[in-house]
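Entry 12.
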Amino acid sequence: MSKPLPSPAPPAPADGVGCVLGTPLQLTTYEQFRSHCLELASHKGVTSVDFTNTHIVTMRRHDPGFRELTDSVDYFVPDGMPLIWCLNFRGAKLGDRVYGPTFMREFIARSPAETSHYFLGGSVVCVEQLKRACLERNPATRILGARHGYFRTEEEPQILEEINRLAPDFIWVGLGTPKQQSWIHRHKGRIDRGVIFAVGFAFDVNAGTKRDAPVWMQRRGLTWLFRAVSEPRRLTMRYLRYNALFLFYLIWDGIRGRAFSPFAQ
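Predicted 3D structure (C-alpha cells):
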C-alpha cells in the first residue's frame, strides 16, 4: 500500500507558543484549545496532538530517537503544572494546565452532535468502561469504534482500515508513552482524516479503572508523586530519573540563558 501524500499543515491557533527544553508548547486554555480542535476537525487531513508533561519534554531533549518520533506532532499541549510554571516565568500568564484526562472528559461530554470519536488503548475492561462512562455523561456521544491497546503488530492494518472506514473526527490514543507516540508516528500518514490525541493515562482515569491524584496535589505539581505511590514498581524509577533530568537540563539551559525561551526554536 502506497503512503498518502502528507496532509496540509493545520491552521495555527491564535494562542501563541512557548518553549521549554526545546519543545514548543501551546499557550492555551481548555476552552481555546477545544474550539481550535473542533475547527481542525472540519479541515481535510490529519492533525496530531500530544498532551505533554515533564517526562515527555525531557525525553525529547534526552533521547534523539524519541525526539524523531515526535517531531511530526502538530501541537504539544502543556499537561503538567511544572511546565506551566516555566512558561509563566517568561510571562505566559496561564492560569492552569490543559490536563489530558480533564480535556478528554469535558471535550467528549460537550461534543456537538455531529462529531464522532474512536478510542484506541487501555485494557478490554478499561475501553468498555470508558465508552460506558462517556455515554452516561452525554448519551448523544457518537463513538464509532474502539479497540483495546493490547493488539498484535499484525492487527494494525485492520485497525487502520477500520479507522479510515469509520472516518471519526477525533481519534483518542491511550497506549502510554512512548508507545502511543510511536504508533502515531508510524501511522499518521496512513490515516485519511481527523484529529489524533495522545492522552495516555486519560483512558484509565475516565474509565474509573485507576484513581487520579487529588486536586490539591495536581495544583502543586505532585500528580507524578501520587502515580508513583500508586504504581511503585512501574513508575517510581521512571519519575525519579526523568524528574532529575528535567531539573538538570533546566539548570543547564538557565546557565546558558536558554531555559525558558518564549518562542519555539
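Annotation: The radius of gyration is 18 Å. DSSP finds twelve helices and eight strands in the chain.
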